[in-house]
Amino acid sequence: MSEKRDYYEVLGVGRDADASELKRAYRKLALELHPDRNSSDKEAEERFKEASEAYQVLSDPEKRGLYDRFGHEGPRGSGFGSGFANVGDIFSAFGDIFGDLFGGLGGFGGGRAQARGADLETRVDLTLAEVSSGVSKEVKLRRRITCKDCGGSGAAVGSGRERCQQCGGHGQVMHRQGFLMIQTVCPICRGEGTIVRKPCEPCQGSGLVTSEEGLRVNIPAGVEDGATLRLSGRGEAAPGGGQTGHLYVSLHVAADPRFDRDGADLHTVVSLSFPQAALGATVKAPSLDGEVELNVAPGTQPGETIVLRGKGLPRLQGRGTGDLIAHLRLVVPKTFSIEQEAALRAYAGAGGDQVEPPNERSGFWRKKRK
Ligand SMILES: [Zn+2]
Ligand SMILES: [Zn+2]
């Protein structure tokens, strides 16, 4: 085995280089030697491992101190593993650096991904009138938020998080299984790389506390039943300062028996008697702003419609309003007075319509049918 090179020399920095200088130097080398760009170059891979090992030691103040005093044996002698078995191992150790370095290129497995807070779901019930106007609704939320006492670290005030000895702060541990090296989440720190010796009391070391709060949700006019609003950052906080989850608000619009909704259009049914349809009439129809009058033309047929422009719901994407469409239906009476029956028979007789004679059936006609 060849002599190990000096770590500072490997990275090309002075012995007094600070953290950002080290990072810069390592990033530069990593970019140059990255295996995605040197797929079959064995030498580049070895240099990549060498640079990664150097950076692993020098970027850690404790290991760097040991290295400065005792050389290569320093970090190793005190129980810190150093060196990398394979390239995947490097990515898992420095995932965050590669994340912003190669983020745009993508394609890295492993890496210590910051856990994101859980998403939450809640439900809001709306009436059609609220859909029409848009509304602000208060929802009750029970969610975990960052503990104020410890700022989310989970460590009691005055203490702090300490590097996990099990995994050396990587959050991942390697096991040998036959010929394979298997990488798993560190069981001691659960992947966080640090542990709490003295837990913060209010959050019991989790860094999160449960909070109950009311949240105003602005619901735009025109939303559909079953739609979902996403409020980013209104879900649960993440342990260790990761991104907060989202709140999904599912919208339920109560059915209104007067209307059938089709997007922004509303359909309603208006009943007419035969004389109204035949002779024309002004009748009332429901709308979201109260009753409106419909002018029914003489000779209107069952199933004809009258469209009231702009009397529907606002369109969600901003422009315009739907229509209210009145479907006219003809109602045949099941009961009527003697006078009405007499008039009807006279009408039929005048038009020559053949109808059932009165003697047998008139009693039947007067009875209210179910
Ligand atoms: Zn706390
Ligand atoms: Zn650990």
Q: How would you characterize the overall build of this protein?
A:
With 370 residues, the chain is α+β, with helices and mostly antiparallel strands. Among the domains are: 7-102, DnaJ domain (Helix Hairpins, Orthogonal Bundle); 256-332, Sandwich (HSP40/DNAj peptide-binding domain); 333-370, no CATH class. The chain contains 11 helices and 15 strands. It has helices at 7-11, 19-33, 42-58, 61-70, 73-77, 87-93, 95-102, 128-133, 274-279, 338-351, 358-366, and strands at residues 120-126, 135-146, 161-163, 172-177, 180-185, 194-196, 208-219, 228-231, 247-253, 260-262, 265-272, 281-285, 292-296, 305-308, 324-330. The strands form 6 sheets. The protein has a 4-stranded mixed beta sheet with strand order 10-11-15-14. A 3-stranded mixed beta sheet has the order 1-9-8. Strands 2-7 form a two-stranded antiparallel sheet. Strand 12 (281-285) and strand 13 form a beta hairpin. Helix 2 runs antiparallel to helix 3. The longest helix is centred in the first third of the chain and has 17 residues, at 42-58. The relative contact order is 0.09. The model is unreliable at 99-113 (pLDDT under 50). Bound molecules: zinc ion (2 copies). One zinc ion (ZN) is lined by residues 164, 166-167, 171, 186, 188-189, 193.
